[in-house]
Design a protein that fits this description.
This protein is α+β, with helices and mostly antiparallel strands and 147 residues long. It has a single domain, classed as Pnp Oxidase, Chain A (Roll). It has a six-stranded antiparallel beta barrel. The protein is globular.
């Protein structure tokens, strides 16, 4: 990671917390929650996919900040300047994870390229390859109230 990347992370958070969020970020949301150990409010800029009241976020598997969502936990997510309250849970059931990855990739086709996933003769991403390439990642599934 370059120094420019290091600078982008705090800057992205500032933008995502500002009224400019809706204008400047089409593909990132701001996830905010309270750390159960320290009581601190944490916020992370994350790429997301929204489908009605379901929002999918990719996060590192086993990361100390995301582990709290293994059994579900409330959070706030800001998308394009709109704040949503939701219930978030890491999808760890393999069958459910397959469904979630399919749904995510269906609307975020750039992931196929980013993860270097080969396509079948029919042009579909190979599910085994998806699960192999994403073995170090989890999907955080957030169900938001309201819209």
């Amino acid at each position: 990671m370059s120094i420019l990347d290091d600078l982008k992370l705090p800057l992205r958070k500032i933008i995502l917390e500002s009224p400019l969020h809706g204008l400047l970020s089409e593909d990132h949301a701001l996830v905010s929650f309270t750390d159960h150990l320290t009581g601190k409010r944490l916020s992370f800029s994350v790429p997301y996919q929204k489908e009605h009241r379901i929002i999918r976020v990719i996060c590192p598997k086993g990361d100390k900040y995301w582990k709290k969502f293994t059994f579900g936990s409330p959070l706030r997510i800001t998308i394009r300047g709109i704040h949503y309250q939701g219930w978030a849970e890491i999808i760890d059931n393999p069958e459910e994870a397959q469904k979630e990855w399919r749904a995510l990739i269906k609307t975020k086709l750039e992931l196929v390229t980013q993860l270097n996933i080969p396509l079948s003769e029919e042009g579909e991403p190979d599910m085994k390859e998806i699960l192999t390439k994403t073995s170090s990642l989890d999907i955080l599934r957030i169900e938001v109230s309201g819209k």
